[in-house]
């Protein structure tokens, strides 16, 4: 294995372990597993094209059964709601309830991360974020997975004027908050060739 690739793998594996420990600790206070918190976090950032059980399954990279069981538990606890899609009766849409949103606010997932990031110079932090985003995208696309990127970074996001956006895939108008959410249909913008 390439030394640089091995170092990235080791560091990200260790960071991933810390994330899971953080999720386990935060969830245990509410009798929730990390997958339950990951589902709630996803639904808090997913747009209206991405709030389905299938999209959540793809995003988490888990089995349909695991996601289905997790969603049933979250629904029974009143943390999410399930609604039929108005235009396609086969689809189920998921959304956080007020209780689900309050739980996410209450569990404070990021204090240690916030503290750690403040120890890094802002410019170095920007560079690190850019490198990690580039690595994530390369791994996703290399494996044939969807990128689930933020709408305003998608080549299908059409900026029509001041604060006016439209989805080039669906033709639907997008609000400014819509453009800040992640989307299952995200298509990364092509980088200009150097």
Automatic annotation (TrEMBL):
Q: Where is the HTH marR-type domain?
A: 5-141
What SMART domains has UniProt attached to this entry? Answer: HTH_MARR (SM00347)
Q: What Gene Ontology cellular-component terms does the record carry?
A: cytoplasm
Q: What is its main location?
A: cytoplasm
Cross-referenced InterPro entries: HTH_MarR-typ, MarR/SlyA-like, WH-like_DNA-bd_sf, WH_DNA-bd_sf
Q: Which GO terms describe its biological process?
A: response to stress
Where in or outside the cell it occurs: the entry states: Cytoplasm
Q: Name one GO molecular function term.
A: DNA-binding transcription factor activity
An example of a Pfam family matching this protein is MarR_2
**PANTHER family noted in UniProt:** ORGANIC HYDROPEROXIDE RESISTANCE TRANSCRIPTIONAL REGULATOR, TRANSCRIPTIONAL REGULATOR, MARR FAMILY
Protein name, UniProt field: Transcriptional regulator
Q: Which organism is it from?
A: Sulfuriferula plumbiphila
């Amino acid at each position: 294995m390439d030394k640089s690739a091995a170092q990235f793998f080791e560091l990200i594996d260790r960071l991933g372990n810390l994330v899971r420990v953080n999720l386990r600790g935060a969830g245990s206070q509410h009798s929730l597993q990390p997958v339950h918190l990951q589902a709630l976090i996803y639904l808090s950032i997913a747009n209206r094209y991405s709030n389905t059980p299938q999209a959540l399954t793809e995003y988490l990279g888990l089995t349909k059964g695991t996601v289905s069981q997790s969603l049933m538990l979250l629904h029974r606890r009143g943390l999410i709601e399930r609604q039929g899609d108005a235009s396609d009766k086969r689809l189920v849409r998921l959304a956080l309830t007020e209780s689900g949103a309050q739980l996410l606010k209450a569990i404070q997932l990021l204090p240690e991360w916030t503290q750690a990031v403040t120890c890094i110079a802002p410019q170095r932090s920007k560079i690190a974020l850019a490198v990690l985003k580039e690595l994530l995208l390369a791994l996703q696309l290399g494996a044939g997975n969807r990128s689930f990127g933020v709408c305003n970074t998608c080549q299908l996001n059409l900026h029509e004027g001041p604060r006016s956006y439209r989805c080039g895939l669906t033709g639907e108008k997008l609000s400014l908050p819509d453009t800040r959410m992640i989307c299952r249909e995200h298509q990364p913008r092509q980088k200009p060739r150097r």
